[in-house]
Amino acid sequence: MALLEVNNLEVSFGLRQGAVKALRNVSFTVERGERVGIVGESGAGKSVAAFSILNLISRPGEITDGEILFEGQNLATLSDKQMRSIRGNRIAMIFQDPMMTLNPVLTLGQQMVECLQAHRKISTADARAIAIEKLRQVQIPSPETRIDQYPHELSGGMRQRIIIAIALLLDPVLIIADEPTTALDVTIQAEIMELLLNLCDSNNVGLILITHDLGVVSQITQKAIVMYAGRIIEQGPTKEIINDAQHPYTQGLINALPQQTVPGQRLNQIPGSMPSLQAIPSGCAFNPRCDFVMDECKTRLPEFTRSGGCSVACHMVRAMKQNPETVQPVDSSEEVK
Predict the structure, then answer these.
(1) pLDDT digits over 161-181, tens only?
(2) Which positions make up the signal peptide (predicted)?
(3) Model confidence, pTM
(4) What secondary structure, in 3-state letters, does 247-272 show?
């Protein structure tokens, strides 16, 4: 049994003009100790998928269909009280901005001790000792001193390490990291991602990494999920997707990476932009931006087709499988270093 199994998940938001679907038929699994990347542009539905797992979708949003099985239990049907025993305990989340996550008027120690005591019957002294050990694990220097400091006394990289330490406090089996390095400079980003990778490996913790950067996904994850307009359009082993992308959108994301461009030339980009949830095109949502669009793409939603170890929702890929001579294939990209 998979650690996490998401089946046919749908999330809708009620608006005055009517309900719009932010997620449509989203299905994927995460095994114990597995690292999974969810990638796509802003508005693809990545964060909504993450919040849905923890049942953090607030009104007017709601889960309208599907199931989220965590260790065999459907999280979509649990009450807020039942979910509180899972959030931060069995499943931890690392948010984008550490200053929005940490309480500025409490010391790090107060916040970490409070988190431990909310889930365990433990003395303040024991909780403080565990907190110091977790700070040491995330390579915070002089943790015995740092634990009594306030968030504003730390750098951005240090604050993000604190957030990771808090996520590890209760030894979760799954961590969801939502753009964990967005606000950090490039060198600190690399340090944080390496730290997260090592901690997951050493503790056999599953990781869902949400990002817009396929370069990060290629270095950290074992499986990649590509989303567009609230739907998964390609998923499979990360190495296979990076080196032989099948969906034109995935290919566009790879071609937009800086290392895919000749120095001195303009970066490649996908023309157009992500459609609004209120105006998703008929058929394949990517068809207005696709260089390989066919008539069928504009009228019918593509079903998933197996291509190697990947599943791809693309009419062109399906047509290539049925009759390779009549369809122009997507060019394979060079291997991303």
Answers:
(1) 899 899 989 989 999 999 887
(2) none
(3) 0.90
(4) CHHHHHHHHCCHHHCCCCCCCCCCCC
